[in-house]
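Progress note, sequence design subtask.
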């Protein structure tokens, strides 16, 4: 899961880093120049048959959907660890006495009942 999150973050950082550096023509090479930026979005606009000015907005929407999917998958994989704490915190905030989970209660929910040694 860690590799998926790293690849997801690297893709977003790389694309938006390139986009803003080339949009403002601040890069040291041709790859970051405004001419290359306009040429790339002109090619995309011809392929997609939409104006070049709409492409960044549509890409932002795609990245938001992708982010929701990645975090949804991460939440499904991690729910066993944070779900007992979350429900306990909510019950505590709603005023149920003794509902706030300790580490022992969380471990007992995740891995079975813990019996004290007497």
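Output:
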């Amino acid at each position: 899961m860690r590799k998926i999150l790293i690849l997801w973050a690297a893709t977003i950082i790389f694309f938006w880093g390139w986009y803003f550096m080339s949009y403002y023509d601040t890069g040291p090479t041709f790859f970051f120049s405004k001419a290359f930026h306009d040429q790339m979005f002109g090619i995309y606009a011809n392929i997609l048959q939409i104006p070049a000015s709409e492409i960044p907005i549509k890409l932002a929407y795609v990245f938001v959907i992708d982010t929701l999917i990645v975090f949804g998958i991460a939440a499904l994989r991690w729910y066993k660890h944070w779900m007992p704490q979350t429900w306990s915190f909510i019950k505590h905030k709603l005023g149920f006495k003794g509902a706030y989970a300790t580490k022992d209660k969380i471990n007992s929910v995740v891995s079975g009942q813990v019996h004290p040694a007497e």
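Residues 45 and 51 are 6 Å apart (CA to CA). Work on this subtask will continue into the next period as scheduled.
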